[in-house]
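Hi R.,

Quick one: here's the Ig-like V-type domain-containing protein FAM187A sequence you asked about.
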Amino acid sequence: MNLAQATVLLWVLGSLQAFEIVEKENIFQRTPCPAFLMFDNAAYLADMSFELPCHCKPEEVSSVVWYYQKHLGSGHTKVLTDFDGRVLTEAAQVRVGSDMLVRFSIHMFSLLVFRAQPEDSGLYFCGTRKGDYFYAYDVDIQSSERMVATFEDQGQEPFADEYHGSLRVFTTFWEWTPCDRCGVRGEQWRIGLCYLQSPGLSPRYRKTLPDVVSCGSRAVPRQLRAKARDHVPELLLRSCLVPCEEKKKIQEGVMALFSYVAKVGSRPWLPPVPIQFHQQRLGHGLIISCPGARPEHAVAWDKDQQYLYHTQYLKGVNRSMRVFIDHGNHLHIRFTQLEDRGIYYCWRQGVRIAGLRLGVTSRGRYPVSFSNPEIRAALVLTLIGYLLITAVFITIHLCRCCCYLFRCYPNFSP
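And here's the predicted structure, written out as tokens:
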């Protein structure tokens, strides 16, 4: 490419970028802000990341500030802003349990919240530093702790709708995910969140369907929300089988040709995906995450040539499982044993993307920390065991004392 062609190409790219910016500004010019502030209802599952766009703002406003309130009119308001040189947060740097103030970013007037938790449920306002609000959301983050899995292949069906007078509680399912594996039998699922329909909802909250909002919405009165408390989110799963893309087959053929050309005996082992090595101490727990995966993605796990299907390894299928997959697509290994050694492969959206070679060793000391949930659980179980043994010991001695007293002092009454 000569200099003239490169100059023309850069000019075209610059024109397209300027056109895109003008288009974004025209959107705000065409969308007037409502005279009366309304709340858009939005529901998500815990550990998901979501975006709240600021759909309208005055033309003279060049930057926005987002505000958060737990309840409408509450005295405590969190100010979410990227001013004063604050570094934008990246999803890969966010840890579970972090405060919301370190789990958000503002990009092109939109608020990005990473790994949302049920405590993040509430009202979000788009406005200025002076406290003028333009747009607002009613966000409901539903917990996945009591999520129920339904397997279509086993003939199971989702929850039936519940009726409490004029109140209807039901599950709204998202679209099916892609098949989590290709070339072999895989699985796909859809997430279902709790919604309700009632004529007694607050008119200040905007709804996609008449009188329908998520169960944790601030538009639901407290007495109605209590009736929908037992309707938990659902996970609907079924089997699937899709072929792999032709590009993958071509790459495998090229790798086979390279292996054939290489000298016998000096050919190195070429993994199909990037492999990370990890050494784990014997008897301690491990949690493995799939790179770039989110709870709404189709994620699958394999150990060497063994497929870890959700019908057998999903959390809650069997309470005594030592190896299981949680609802956030993480692979858990409790009390690591020697047979856990191997390569764990991760599939994301039907493509195998990474692997972890796990080694287990019994050497070395493990630092004791009460912040470790496994150590706390072990201490609680030990304390409960001592209490049970003490209770049995005291009960036995009380019974012996009672028997001794009745034997030594018989009843002489006629």
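The longest strand covers residues 186-197.

Cheers,
M.
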